[in-house]
Amino acid sequence: MSVRRGTERELAKFRDWLNDPDAQVRLNAAVRLAYLDCADGLAELVAGLAHSEGAIRLVQVPEALALLGDRGLVHARELVRRPGVARLPAARTLTHVGEVDGVVEAIVATLGDPNETSRREAASLAGELGPAAAGVFDVLAPIVSSGGDQLDTALPALASIGGKRAIPLLLQAIENGPAGVRVAALHGLAGLGLGAAEVYGQVAAVLDDASLSLRERLAAAQALTRIGPSGDAVAARIITALPRSDRWLRIGLLRTLAQIAPGYPRRPEVSQVWPLWESKFVHSAPPQLISRSRDGVLSALVEHLDHDDHDVRRNAALAVAFFGRAGRAAIDQVTKAPRLSEPLRHDVLRRLGPRTSTVAGSERRPGPFDHLDQGAWPWDLHVTQPTVDLDRISADCERQWAQASGGDLNYRIDVPKWEFLHYLVERHGVLLHGSPTPGVGILTPRSRSWGGGRTSGQPGIFAVDHALMAMYFGIMERDKVSYLSNGIWTGSRPDGAAVRCFRLAAEFAGLASRPFANATIYILPAKTFTMMGELTSLVPVQPLARLTISPSDYPLLEYVWGSDVGPLSTQFGERFAFLQDVGIWPAKRSAQSAHK
What is the rounded CA–CA span in Å between residue 203 and residue 510? Predict the structure, then answer.
């Protein structure tokens, strides 16, 4: 692939960083130089194949080496045949250019590694290769059969490389495995599509089992849409389950019905829940579509438009929208009822036609920031920046900020903490980093995710220039949610004035656990940060101060929405402009009491 050449100034900066005493800074420089088609950091990259962070050694470094062509590949070809931690990353480097010589052998060897993480990474690479790694099946299958410790990764990989051969082992995991393993097996079956039709009954039994978790039952529903005999049969099964579902499951099942509605766009799906290869595999089988039972399904959905729960009504409306004219006709009928007129106008009709203003007397419970949120974006999908009189709080904030000495602030003023942080950003030009980890003296670059990429995926220190977004990142317990979905942009008030807008969401199945905890906001100097997808420093940063916060300090806590990035992500183009943000469709608010 072609890469642009950097300016001499860029090259000089990164070459200078190759002499930095910090090993991570040197590696960051080597990665950036590779993106600029410069191999001066080649030795650092080769050493990076043994980095302690998996996202670095298996994503960023292999991509950078592959960008250098034979200058980097020659080292990968040598290391792929040597035992050691660099062997699997070297194999992944070769897959970037389509080479498989030595790759399968490296995967098989690593599957026998005593380190669980290494075994898991090997299974993941096998799944990424799919049928090209067919030689791995007979090695991985006994591991799965014996209940190995990397089943959540190995099961989808087994289905990816072995197809129908994997079904008996996937069923075994569904019958005997713990929740996480059962979900992984269901994902594997979903990827097989109609090839797994023979186990439709066993998967439907998971959906019907009230003793199982929300994740398991929703994974079963998703699998049914792909392995079921028809969209009509799947819809009938889901509709039967709706009356026995709690609000969380009911909302998820309504969203599943949206995916098999006749107007649902047929586009490749992506997800942030799984690694890219697994997402591609799981969603490779298209969902079945409702056809003969259209009127019956619409009738069940329309009943939910009269549900007491605002969020149930909203998600039923999503499904109705994908029935096209028939769905529009159904909505037109029920809007004649006085109780439904305003909620449907607010939740549906303004998305299907010209924007309308909120009608007075809505039964929707007003929120503290509603006066700033008047219809510029999808309803309740975003919130806007609450107003703050910076001059009014200036004296208190300056008095508190004068105590900053790099450590924890002893917070003594009556100003809400978010307003104080907002003041510092606006008046002192600082940046903020929210973290669950307290007491860090110097922040060092870390890999953000497995996402790779040439900018924001690079290891770094990530910061934001807004208090409310930093606090959101800090208080979310990442081990309780599979992903976060968020954004910040400049919108307009009804009077035309500019205002900051927020999209705040988390995986809605995880949001059921109320995944909020105390956090620390690190107040940082801005001088080493540049925009690389997001504000990023590739070198260590010493905080100016630290501020401890709790979930109760966050004024938008009940505006964090449950979202489902996977099945409804990046689906809707100009044909469904009103649903362009459905990738983070707000399934529900974090508070169970909201909109009751």
Answer: 22
